[in-house]
């Protein structure tokens, strides 16, 4: 009888935990169904003072309660990209952000180098920080995108709360259990619930970090790497053509400078070969004339 009672309590607790998990999943599925239905049949506009619904299907969320993940990238042309990268780091750190990645390319004779940074900026200060980053040079491109994760966040919060309650019930039962078999089953169940809880908490922390800290990729380039606008008028076309002609002439001069030493060496070698061949030909003619003089009557015979 003593073994039956703890076992029955264990089965009852596990059933309650399973029910709580099932209810959470059922609520999530029900929420998704209602969201899909709202897309097919739009609800009437809410009355003044009532909360509306956002594009993600979440109903009743106020603007200050919405969870938004913002990402983007910026391209800036700077006279000294590497120095501008250091200035960008100072701007971001002053705003309370951080640098997650930084890649730099060393300058070359025709290029001042470049730098690419992955910046994490507090979402509340993103606009002000972006304006400061634009002052590092000439802004070539800016792109920002936002994703509403309010429903996902609230779903995780509900599942975490249910999972914690389940772990607490199993832990309380474990403290009063005396049967070895019951203890083993309780420890196994607690371990499984704890693993699920830690996984959901990690997801929630990652989501909170993405919401609180926007991600911005900053690309700093030199004027040599800056995109060139296509000509759209006669004078701009003439300027582009003249620039291309000058560049082509410069390329030919560079090629001539590269080939000139080889041409000189090749010319000297050809001259030496020609002199050797000419000398050998003269010697052959001289031997032929000498042979004719040594043979009597050869002229008469000829």
From TrEMBL:
Residues 66-273 form the DUF4349 domain. The chain crosses the membrane at residues 248-277. It comes from Conyzicola lurida. Keywords: Membrane, Signal, Transmembrane, Transmembrane helix. Residues 21-62 are annotated as: Disordered. This is DUF4349 domain-containing protein. Residues 24-52 have a biased composition (Low complexity). It comes from the Bacteria. Residues 1-25 form the signal peptide. The keyword Signal applies. The keyword Membrane applies.
